[in-house]
C-alpha cells in the first residue's frame, strides 16, 4: 500500500476548513503553529483570529507592547510562547526587514521555534521536504508500523524523526505533513480511533496485533507537585488594590497577580490571622478579611497543581504603588486570576 498516497487522498476529502490552510504566508502559518501548540483547534482558533485581526502583519506584532500581546494571549497558557513569539517578530521585522526565513535551518534559529514548528513552516510555505513529528504523527506512525519505542525517550525521538523523514513526499511535503497530522487528529485518535473505516486498516500493524489502544508508548511523567496558594485581594476605601508583576522566570513571567502567600497545607478561614506567614506579612496593619472560596480552586499545570484560595482583605489605605480596581481587567494575568476578576463583584 502506498502510505503517502493514501494519506494525501484521504486529506483532500476529509481535511477541516481552517483559515491557515488557505494561505502560504509564513507569518500566518507561524502564528497558527505557535498558538496551536498544546492547544485544541476549537480553543486556539479564536486566538488565531484575534491575533490576525489585531496584528495583521509581522510589523504590527513587532510594534505591539508586550503587555498587550500577553493580554491577548490570556487563557492559552504556556505564556513563554507569547513572549518568544513577540521577540521573534521584532527580530524578523527589524533585523530581517520583514522577510521571514525561507529555510528550515534559518527558521530554527528563531526564538521559540523547535524542530516541529520549523519543519511545518518550511514544508508548508517553502516546499522544503522536512518531516514534522508531533503527537498526532507519533500516534499514527507507532500504530501503523507497530513501534513500541517510547516516544518521549531519546531513542524514540530519533527513531520517529528518521522514519518520518524517509516517508515524506518530497514532491508535495506541505500537504503530506498536514495530511499526516490531520489523520492523527480526526481519524487515528488517541481514544476510540475509527479503525473500521480506516483507509490503512489492511496494513496497520497495531490493528493486526490488537494493540491499537496501547500505542504509542510513553515513559511516565515527572511527579506532579502540589502547592497551596493564597492570593490576597486587597480593597481600600478609595477602591484601589495591589497588583504585582511577576519578574522571576517561570510560566507566569511578566504576568500580573495579587500578592500571594504559599502555605504547606490548605489554610482554614479561622486560622488565617494566626498563621505565621500571615502575621509576618501584615505585621501591625489593621485589616478585615473574608474568604472568597471555601473550597480550593485547582489550577493544573504540566508540572504542578495549584490549590488556590482568594482572601478578600479590606483596609483603609494602600501604598502609592496600588492601582484602581477599575483597571484590573487591562492587565495580562494567569487564567486563574482572570477568572476570579471576572467573577468577583468588585466595588468600582
TrEMBL record:
<keyword id="KW-0408">Iron</keyword>
<keyword id="KW-0378">Hydrolase</keyword>
<keyword id="KW-0479">Metal-binding</keyword>
<dbReference type="Pfam" id="PF00633">
    <property type="entry name" value="HHH"/>
</dbReference>
<dbReference type="InterPro" id="IPR029119">
    <property type="entry name" value="MutY_C"/>
</dbReference>
<dbReference type="InterPro" id="IPR023170">
    <property type="entry name" value="HhH_base_excis_C"/>
</dbReference>
<dbReference type="InterPro" id="IPR015797">
    <property type="entry name" value="NUDIX_hydrolase-like_dom_sf"/>
</dbReference>
<comment type="similarity">
    <text>Belongs to the Nth/MutY family.</text>
</comment>
<dbReference type="InterPro" id="IPR003265">
    <property type="entry name" value="HhH-GPD_domain"/>
</dbReference>
<dbReference type="Pfam" id="PF00730">
    <property type="entry name" value="HhH-GPD"/>
</dbReference>
<keyword id="KW-0004">4Fe-4S</keyword>
<keyword id="KW-0227">DNA damage</keyword>
<comment type="function">
    <text>Adenine glycosylase active on G-A mispairs. MutY also corrects error-prone DNA synthesis past GO lesions which are due to the oxidatively damaged form of guanine: 7,8-dihydro-8-oxoguanine (8-oxo-dGTP).</text>
</comment>
<keyword id="KW-0234">DNA repair</keyword>
<dbReference type="InterPro" id="IPR000445">
    <property type="entry name" value="HhH_motif"/>
</dbReference>
<feature type="domain" description="HhH-GPD">
    <location>
        <begin position="35"/>
        <end position="186"/>
    </location>
</feature>
<dbReference type="Pfam" id="PF14815">
    <property type="entry name" value="NUDIX_4"/>
</dbReference>
<dbReference type="InterPro" id="IPR044298">
    <property type="entry name" value="MIG/MutY"/>
</dbReference>
<dbReference type="InterPro" id="IPR005760">
    <property type="entry name" value="A/G_AdeGlyc_MutY"/>
</dbReference>
<keyword id="KW-0411">Iron-sulfur</keyword>
<dbReference type="InterPro" id="IPR011257">
    <property type="entry name" value="DNA_glycosylase"/>
</dbReference>
<protein>
    <recommendedName>
        <fullName>Adenine DNA glycosylase</fullName>
        <ecNumber>3.2.2.31</ecNumber>
    </recommendedName>
</protein>
<keyword id="KW-0326">Glycosidase</keyword>
Amino acid at each position: 500500500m502506498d502510505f503517502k498516497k493514501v494519506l494525501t487522498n484521504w486529506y483532500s476529502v476529509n481535511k477541516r476548513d481552517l483559515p491557515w490552510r488557505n494561505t502560504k504566508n509564513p507569518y500566518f502559518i507561524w502564528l497558527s503553529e505557535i498558538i496551536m501548540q498544546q492547544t485544541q483547534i476549537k480553543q486556539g482558533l479564536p486566538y488565531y483570529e484575534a491575533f490576525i485581526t489585531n496584528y495583521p502583519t509581522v510589523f504590527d506584532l513587532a510594534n505591539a507592547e508586550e503587555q498587550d500581546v500577553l493580554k491577548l494571549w490570556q487563557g492559552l497558557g504556556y505564556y513563554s510562547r507569547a513572549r518568544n513569539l513577540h521577540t521573534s517578530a521584532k527580530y524578523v521585522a527589524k533585523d530581517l526587514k520583514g522577510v521571514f526565513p525561507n529555510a528550515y535551518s534559518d527558521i530554527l534559529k528563531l526564538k521559540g521555534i523547535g524542530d516541529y514548528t520549523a519543519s511545518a513552516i518550511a514544508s508548508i510555505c517553502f516546499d522544503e521536504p522536512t518531516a514534522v513529528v508531533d503527537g498526532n504523527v507519533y500516534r499514527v506512525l507507532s500504530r501503523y508500523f507497530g513501534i513500541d519505542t517510547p516516544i518521549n525517550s531519546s531513542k524514540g525521538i530519533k527513531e520517529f524523526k528518521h522514519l518520518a523523514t524517509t516517508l515524506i513526499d518530497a514532491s508535495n511535503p506541505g500537504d503530506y505533513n498536514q495530511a499526516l497530522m490531520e489523520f492523527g487528529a480526526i481519524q487515528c485518535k488517541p481514544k476510540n480511533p475509527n479503525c473500521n473505516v480506516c483507509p490503512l486498516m489492511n496494513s496497520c500493524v497495531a490493528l493486526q496485533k490488537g494493540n491499537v489502544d496501547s500505542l504509542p508508548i510513553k515513559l511516565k511523567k515527572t511527579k506532579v507537585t502540589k502547592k497551596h496558594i493564597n492570593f490576597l485581594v486587597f480593597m481600600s476605601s478609595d477602591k484601589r488594590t495591589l497588583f504585582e508583576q511577576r519578574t522571576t522566570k517561570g510560566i507566569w513571567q511578566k504576568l500580573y497577580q495579587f500578592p500571594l502567600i504559599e502555605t504547606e497545607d490548605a489554610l482554614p478561614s479561622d486560622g488565617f490571622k494566626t498563621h505565621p506567614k500571615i502575621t509576618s506579612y501584615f505585621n501591625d496593619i489593621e485589616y478585615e478579611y473574608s474568604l472568597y472560596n471555601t473550597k480550593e480552586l485547582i489550577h493544573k499545570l504540566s508540572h504542578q497543581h495549584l490549590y488556590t484560595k482568594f482572601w478578600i482583605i479590606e483596609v483603609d489605605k494602600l501604598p502609592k504603588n496600588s492601582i484602581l480596581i477599575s483597571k484590573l481587567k487591562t492587565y495580562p494575568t494567569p487564567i486563574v486570576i482572570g477568572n476570579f476578576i471576572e467573577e468577583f463583584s468588585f466595588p468600582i
